[in-house]
Amino acid sequence: MEVQVWLCLCFLLHCTIHATSYSGKLLYSTYSLIKEFDVDTRNVTILLELGSSHVFAIDYDYKNRFIYFPRYNTFYDIVRFAYPSKIITLQTIVKTSSYSSGIAVDSATDHIYWTEVHGLLSKCNLVGINVATVVSSLNNPWVIRLDITNRWMYIVEHYIGILKSTFDLSEKRTIVNFTSTPVYCMDIDTEENRLYWINHDGDMKSCKDDGSDVKTILSTNISRSYLAISVVGSNIYYANDNQLVMVTKTPGSTPTILYNDTNRIDSIFMFNLSGMYITIYNHVYVHNN
Fold first, then answer.
1. Mode of pairing for the β-strands spanning 132-135 and 77-82
2. Is the peptide bond before 84 cis (omega within 30 degrees of 0)?
3. Residue 210 pLDDT > 60, yes or no?
4. Shortest CA distance to 104 belongs to which of 133, 85, 83, 124?
5. Can you list the domains of the chain with their CATH numbers?
6. What long-range pairs does 32-36 form, CB within 8 A, spacing at least 24?
7. End-to-end Cα separation, the chain, in angstroms
8. Chain-wide mean pLDDT for the chain?
9. DSSP label at 179?
10. Is the pLDDT of residue 288 over 60?
């Protein structure tokens, strides 16, 4: 046991060193492509050609190392591929009825959840078995985010507001109401227990995870559909049409344009290697006990 604990501590130290020296890579989608943006070098690599389809959400299973995403049109399915990997092979997990926009991985129970714009929230396990409808009466659900630790779901009904619900649906309520402008992107900062979103008027807003303390982080003053946002540490990454942009959480901060793509950016996922290390470490530690 002492040897096992020592090995685990060494492994944690090794992971910590790598985590502190690694800034992460950002994955984003444009029409028919998924690309990888290196935060340090600002180099962009095409990871996957999708064919004729939009991808409006990307999530990651850190335990098994798979990227999951729904193909919104043409294919109508949920697919995945191993990442990081030198060879990208796309696997179809489940066929959806139509127009799936949001996806989230529940690593605690090895399930994926996805939204379909005509009102459905569905789920299945990580390989597409036991498909079930969770809710069938949502109003234009677009985004789903999960607080796995506290077991809450957050769903953007893009003309109505942000719905907060327990996984068993025993408690659910709208915690943020949208007034006259729709929302197509939202993310959770689980460290500070806050939500972030951008409305069609270009206002980036934040609130506590109970809907209180609403703040405006910045205003772009440009009306359009803002489709992608990801909050990591003290930074917020978002898409302004074809621009990949970063801003700090501090209201009034000046945005930095990281990259100009040739096409509109539809989704963003910030991959953090330290998250994979921590997941592996926890798995090893539990196994040894």
1. unpaired
2. yes
3. yes
4. 124
5. 23-187+260-271 (2.120.10.30)
6. 33/263, 34/58, 34/67, 34/69, 35/261
7. 9
8. 88
9. -
10. no
